[in-house]
Amino acid sequence: MDKYVDVGTFMTGLSILGDKMSENGKVVIDQVIEMLNDFEAADVKPVVYGEWVPIYDEHLGTLYKCSACSFIRDPYILKEETYCACCGAYMNGADNLRKST
Ligand SMILES: [Zn+2]
């Protein structure tokens, strides 16, 4: 199974580990960090999660706004969607409607 990580955070952890090691250990850690810098990035993008936030329009009634990008959706279309059609944020359809307070 592939596992994608934040390589910057990983390299920071390696540097901290290298600071605790002998000179030979630090050399190895520096080589690993150099190898990571030379690796080509995988073609992935972060998963964005959002929820539908109810808003009220005096002419159209209750609509829903994506919490990630502010895209506005009609509640009838919303029930079929698991992703925001505008930004791709993962939604859980009508089950992920923020409750009005
Ligand atoms: Zn969105």
Which ligands appear in the coordinates? zinc ion
Please report the number of helical segments.
3
Overall 3D form = rod-shaped
Fraction in helix: 25-40%
Task: Write up what this structure looks like.
The structure is a single chain. α1 (7-19) runs antiparallel to α2 (23-38). The protein has helices at 7-19, 23-38, 75-78, and strands at 52-57, 61-66, 72-73. It is rod-shaped, with a radius of gyration of 22 Å. β2 and β3 form a beta hairpin. The model has no long low-confidence stretch (mean pLDDT 85). The protein has 101 residues and is an alpha+beta fold. The two termini are 42 Å apart. The chain has 3 helices and 3 strands. It has a 3-stranded antiparallel beta sheet with strand order 1-2-3. The chain folds into 2 domains: 7-38, no CATH class; 49-100, no CATH class. Zinc ion (ZN) is lined by residues 50, 66, 68-69, 71, 84, 86-87, 89. Zinc ion binds next to loops.
Fold topology:
Layout lengths: L6 H13 L3 H16 L13 E6 L3 E6 L5 E2 L1 H4 L23
Antiparallel strand pairs: 1-2, 2-3
Zinc ion binds next to loops.
Overview features:
single chain; 101 residues; alpha+beta; 2 domains; 3-stranded antiparallel sheet; 33% helix; rod-shaped; binds zinc ion
Short description, anyone?
Helices cover 33% and strands 14% of the residues. With 101 residues, the protein is of the alpha+beta class.
